[in-house]
Write a structure and sequence with these properties.
Blueprint lengths: L6 H23 L2 H16 L9 H25 L18 H11 L1 H7 L4 H12 L4 H8 L3 H15 L10 H17 L2 H6 L1 E10 L11 E2 L1 H15 L3 E8 L2 E8 L2 E10 L4 E7 L2 H8 L5
Parallel strand pairs: 1-6
Antiparallel strand pairs: 1-2, 3-4, 4-5, 5-6
């Protein structure tokens, strides 16, 4: 390839690859804001390549973004050790409603549940796993990106799969069943129907909340259908019709948004077994809701 020295060409290449680069950084970091910072850093480095011959532009940019994400994740892991309460990924929602096929394709590699499980991995293990299992990279490309041997990268992926894949959901739930359960639960929560909410929750349902030390949340998961149903019932008693719930695509699958006085108060990522709700991950940290709150309405 001839050296690229036209700024318009540089811009066009980066713009075309930006969604992929952001997707890598977001999955690595679980934070939309930090992902944007990484992509911006990569852009600055990319601009400095004007006049330099690069054989494979996409591979070069993927490598830069991956390694920047690894460096940032190392620092983030230290910070998250001192995080107040439970740390959950920042939720994202698409600009337009995805088709059922698109949501089914994304749910296994961008859902809040999946991103939370990735937190178990080392930064390099997370990068190797995502490159191989989500982005279908060859071990040769992974090795070049991480500066390791192919054998070492195979080991990283193998260990990551052992930690992650066995924890993935045991049920493949039809989208229509998932949507039906969410709709019924949202309606029951809206009218404060404790019995109906309780009937839609598995006996061992688990609720995890992230308040970031800025708003009240739980230091440890809340477990049990009665306790979780009482939590939503208490919200209804406190706010009445000032609290509104609606469904929306969140991280590749349908979730619930709760607005209080017209302001986004929480995002509920919900896992079901097709019959009942088995887990909720509730993002209440205002800093992690700011981007969504600016574009979503009740």
């Amino acid at each position: 390839m001839n050296p690229t020295d036209d700024i318009d060409d540089i811009n066009d290449v980066f713009t075309g690859l930006r969604p992929r680069l952001h997707g890598i950084a977001y999955r690595m970091l679980g934070s939309n804001e930090e992902a944007e910072d990484v992509v911006q850093d990569a852009w600055m480095r990319w601009r400095q390549t004007a006049g330099v011959a690069i054989d494979n532009e996409e591979a070069w940019l993927v490598s830069v973004v991956t390694n920047l994400s690894i460096d940032r994740l190392r620092s983030a892991k230290v910070e998250r050790e001192h995080y107040i309460g439970t740390w959950l990924p920042e939720p994202v929602t698409p600009d337009a409603s995805p088709s059922p096929e698109q949501m089914l394709e994304k749910v296994e590699n961008i859902s809040i549940a999946f991103l939370t499980m990735l937190e178990r991995l080392s930064p390099e293990g997370r990068a190797a796993f995502l490159m191989r299992e989500v982005f279908a990279a060859s071990y040769r490309d992974i090795a070049l990106t991480l500066g390791k041997s192919e054998a070492a990268c195979r080991q990283l992926v193998h260990r990551a799969k052992a930690q992650i894949l066995e924890k993935r959901r045991r049920y493949r739930v039809a989208p229509e069943d998932h949507i039906r359960l969410l709709k019924e639960f949202a309606e029951a929560a809206q009218r404060g129907d404790f019995a109906a909410m309780r009937s839609l929750l598995a006996d061992g349902v688990e609720l995890m909340g992230d308040g970031g030390g800025q708003v009240p949340s739980f230091a440890a998961p809340l477990r049990g259908a009665d306790r979780v149903a009482r939590l939503f019932y208490a919200t209804r008693l406190r706010y009445g019709d000032r609290a509104r719930m609606r469904m929306a695509p969140v991280n590749g699958e349908w979730g619930l948004l709760r607005f209080i006085d017209g302001t986004l108060e929480s995002v509920h990522s919900v896992e079901t077994d097709g019959t009942r709700i088995v887990r909720m991950q509730v993002q209440r940290n205002p800093a992690k809701l700011a981007a969504l709150a600016s574009v979503l309405r009740p």
